[in-house]
Write a structure and sequence with these properties.
Strand order of the largest sheet: 1-2
Helix content: over 70%
Number of helices: 9
Number of domains: 1
Largest sheet: 2 strands, antiparallel
Number of strands: 2
Length: 284
């Protein structure tokens, strides 16, 4: 009994150490983003902070970096992690377009893509198809370096530590809330001067907690951090580079589109409930 208590205490100390180091490293990156200039290189440093924190924590705890779940044993979960965000984001944006919270297609974005690709803008369908394919392949690979920095820390390290002291349901919510709060300074930078900061923070938090349930499921089922990294990259690219840019906004859009409106959080919550029940049934 005493051994179990000591092990739990040691785990909590490890979690606290990781979160403290993550906070310190993230604070440096946030200082650069907020006080110097919000450039992609500083944002990249921020996204790398959880991975660096996990490496430092492992070093302090005299554990090897190789103890992280690097290996990919089943490609099944890589495939599922690739297509799941495409599915829920597609559902969300189809609903957005159907309910009139935004219209499709943004001709200005298509024209911009045609100039970037060197394809005549009169062939809009071809421009869209080529750009979407490139973004969901080349774009995802390029973005993977940034998302991997987060997922090494959040899914590769943190949830495995939380699993030692929490149920699947609890760790999904706790890790999601930590991940959401970690983003708050960026959201404040984006929307702090507007009238709907609390709305955007609430929507984003709901979405992140829902996504965290799905990511925890894929991570534990595969015993690998790679499905989460790929999932995260697809999620970012498909929303930020494809669906949102192709949507023509209106007065109601701010409440519904993107990661900071409520349509994606609603859909991800429904997906999360499915994965939550699936995890319970499978004894995760």
């Amino acid at each position: 009994m005493a051994t179990v208590i000591e092990e739990r205490k040691d785990t909590w100390n490890t979690i606290a150490l990781f979160l403290s180091i993550t906070t310190a490293l993230s604070a440096i990156a946030y200082f650069a983003i907020l006080k110097l200039k919000p450039t992609s290189i500083y944002v990249g440093a921020l996204m790398l902070s959880p991975a660096l924190a996990s490496f430092i924590t492992l070093k302090i705890r005299k554990r090897t970096i190789l103890s992280l779940p690097w290996r990919v044993k089943e490609l099944k979960y890589i495939k599922l992690a690739y297509f799941t965000p495409i599915l829920y984001v597609s559902i969300a944006y189809v609903l957005i377009w159907l309910f009139g919270f935004g219209d499709v297609i943004n001709i200005n974005k298509v024209t911009s893509w045609s100039n970037e690709l060197g394809i005549d803008s009169s062939n809009q369908i071809l421009v869209i198809i080529v750009m979407v394919i490139l973004l969901l392949t080349v774009g995802v690979v390029k973005n993977l370096g940034s998302t991997l920095g987060e997922e090494i820390g959040w899914r590769g390290f943190l949830i495995f530590e939380l699993r030692k002291v929490m149920s699947f349901k609890a760790l999904s919510i706790v890790s999601g809330l930590i991940w959401a709060v970690w983003h708050y300074p960026i959201i404040n930078l984006m929307y702090g001067r507007g009238d709907h900061l609390l709305l955007h923070i609430s929507a984003f938090t709901i979405m992140i907690v829902g996504v965290s349930v799905i990511l925890a499921y894929y991570t534990f089922k595969s015993n690998s951090l790679w499905p989460a990294a790929i999932f995260h990259s697809i999620h970012n690219i498909y929303i930020q580079k494809i669906c949102s840019p192709l949507t023509v906004t209106n007065d109601n859009s701010t409440f519904w589109i993107d990661e900071y409106g409520f349509m994606i959080p609603i859909v991800t919550t429904l997906f999360a409930i499915y994965f939550w029940k699936k995890a319970e049934k499978e004894g995760l």
